[in-house]
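Hello again, I could really use a second opinion on something today. I've dropped the whole record in just underneath, so have a look.
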Amino acid sequence: MNVRKEAQQKKEAILDYIRQLADVPSYYKHNQLVQGIINAIDDKVIEKGERLPSVNTMIEQLHFSRATIVKGIAELIDRGVIGSQKRLGYYVLGGEDEKIQSIALVMYNLDTFEEQFYRNFRAQLSKKSGLMSFSITEI
């Protein structure tokens, strides 16, 4: 298979992973981007050293704002999942960083679960008690 065609298919698969999360009600778009890329990495759709779709491609294909894409990318970099090369784009970290990446993926999933749990808890409590809003310190 043509290398260029294979790379294009991988990028499209990554975008599909991100799109699949569009119906998750507790995900903001940047969470959808982050979790979609993490899922693609977990499923070996994209592996260490391989490049992600460009920011412009993600904007065009996902119809997300540049700010949303940049926020999701920054979160993945902060968590040690991806790196960047100036003017070359973003790529999946690997090698020595693989253990750090695995820990980062687990921690992100736990953090996301806690956030989803809190949002759902807050919505259900609000419905049942008639409260319009409250903060975590009020519980």
Summary: Residues 3-138 form a domain with the Arc Repressor Mutant, subunit A fold (CATH 1.10.10.10). The chain has a mean pLDDT of 81.
